């Protein structure tokens, strides 16, 4: 994707702010004629889901989240062990 960003990446504004997850990358301008990619990002303020569209040039990878969380669920055999 553009500038190394991809859907699902955790980013933040270069000027600071909360960690945000990229939900989509595309041209989100009202006329869809800007011809450049922007990121639609989501984040939470308390329990409230927020979203916004940002120029890719205004974002940087959030290195506080450089490795994705992995949940490992142990497998059980047919007997339930």
CATH topology: SH3 type barrels
The name of the CATH architecture is: Roll
What portion of the residues fall into strands of 2 or more residues? Answer: 35-45%
The CATH homologous superfamily is called: Hemimethylated DNA-binding domain
Q: Low-confidence stretches at least 5 residues in length (pLDDT < 50)?
A: none
Ends distance: 43 Å
The radius of gyration over CA amounts to: 17 Å
Mean pLDDT: 81
What is the SS-derived class? mainly beta
Largest sheet: spatial strand order: 4-3-2-1-5
The total beta strand count reads: 5
Question: CATH class, anyone?
Answer: Mainly Beta
The residue fraction in helices comes out at under 10%
Sketch the major β-sheet: 5 strands, antiparallel
Task: Give structural notes.
This protein is mainly β. The protein has a single domain (2-62), classed as Hemimethylated DNA-binding domain (SH3 type barrels, Roll), CATH 2.30.30. It is 0% helix and 37% strand. It contains no helices and five strands. The protein has strands at residues 10-13, 20-26, 38-45, 48-55, 59-61. The protein has a five-stranded antiparallel sheet with strand order 4-3-2-1-5, with no helix packed on it. A hairpin with a 2-residue loop joins strand 3 and strand 4. It is globular, with a radius of gyration of 17 Å. The chain starts with 9 loop residues before the first strand and ends in a 20-residue tail after the last strand. The relative contact order is 0.24. The mean pLDDT is 81.
